[in-house]
Design a protein that fits this description.
73% helix; mainly alpha; homotetramer; Helix Hairpins; 5 helices; 103 residues
Chain lengths: 103, 103, 103, 103
C-alpha cells in the first residue's frame, strides 16, 4: 500500500512539498471533509445516503497517514499493533467493558 | 489488522457506542491530537523531538479509520487503491507534476 | 475585548510565538476540544451536563480568533458584519428558507 | 452582533437545524477551512496573498461561535472575560513569560 502511494507522489514530484507539519495538517483537513458528510445529518442518514463519499474521504485520511508514516521511516501497520497493545494495558477488559468514555 | 482492532473493541463491548458520526468525530479529534504536536513548533523540531508521540497519534487516527471502514462493511485497503486510481485521473502526471496545490 | 486579550499576551511576551499559521492551527485545536465534549454523547446530554465546559471551550476558540484578527490588523466585528451581508446575498431568504444544507 | 446573526438565521428559519452538536461540528469545519488557507504554504505567504480569505473564514468561525453561545443562553463576550481571568490564574505572568507551550 505504501509503495503504491509513494510511487503516486514521486511520479508527480510532490514529496518536496510534504513536510511533516503540512501532512499532519492535511490529515486533519481530510478528517474534516469526512466529518462534513455528517453535518446537519443523523449518523444513519449519512451512512445510508452517502456511503461512497464516506469511503472516499476515509481513504483520503488514510493515504496521508501512510505518507506521513513513510516519511517518518515507520511502518504504520506495526505502529497500530503497538498502539493496540498499549491501549489494552491502559483499558483492561475488566475495567473498561461497556464504558463509553474509554472507547 | 481489522480483526485485531475489532476483537479489541468487542472484548470491551464498545461497538454499541460506535455510531458512524461519532467515529468520524473521533477520527477528527485524533487528527487534532496529531496536529497539536506541531503547535508552536517547526516541522523539523516536532519530528526530531517527538517522533514516538507522532507515531502513536498516527496509529490512533488509523485505528478509528479501520473501525469506521469495518462498520461500513468496506475494506479500507481496497478503498485506498480505488482512491489512488481516481486521484490519478484527477491529477494526471503531466499536469500536476511539481504543483503544490494538487498534492 | 481585543485590548484585554492583547494585554494578556503582551504581559506574558507571547506574541513572538504567534505566527498566523500556528494561530489558525490553535483555533482548530480549540474547536476540537469543544467538539470533544460531544464525543459519544447526544447533543442534549452534552448541553445539560457540560454547559460550563462548552462555554469555556467556546471562549478559547474566540480568544484565538480575536488574536488572529488583531495580528491581521482587522476588526473581527466588522468582518462578521461584512460576512453576514455576503452570506445574505449567497443565501437569499426566499431560496434558503428551511434548507438545512445552506445553514 | 448576536442579534444581527440571530435575525439572519431566523429569517431563513434555520434555527430548527441548529442543535448544539452540529454547531460545534460546524465551528470545527470552519476552523479547518481557515487552516486550509495555510496548507502547503508558509504563514507569511498565506497572510500576504490570502488576507481577505483568512478574514472571511475567521468571520465564519466566529459567527457559529456566537450562534452556539446564544443557543446556550450565554453572552460570549462575558465568557471571554471570564476565561481570560481564569487563564491569568493558570498562567501567572512570572511563570509563563516567554514560554511557548503555555501560549
Amino acid at each position: 500500500m505504501t509503495s503504491l502511494i509513494n510511487d503516486f507522489r514521486d511520479e508527480r514530484n510532490w514529496r518536496q512539498f510534504h513536510n511533516a507539519k503540512d501532512l499532519a495538517l492535511s490529515i486533519s483537513l481530510e478528517a474534516s471533509e469526512l466529518l462534513e458528510v455528517f453535518q446537519w445529518r443523523t449518523s444513519e442518514s449519512a451512512v445510508s445516503e452517502h456511503r461512497n463519499e464516506l469511503l472516499e474521504e476515509l481513504a483520503d485520511v488514510t493515504i496521508y497517514c501512510l505518507q506521513l508514516a513513510s516519511d517518518l521511516d515507520a511502518n504504520l501497520g506495526q505502529e497500530i499493533v503497538r498502539k493496540v497493545i498499549k491501549n489494552g494495558e491502559k483499558y483492561p477488559v475488566e475495567k473498561s467493558r461497556g464504558v463509553a468514555r474509554d472507547c
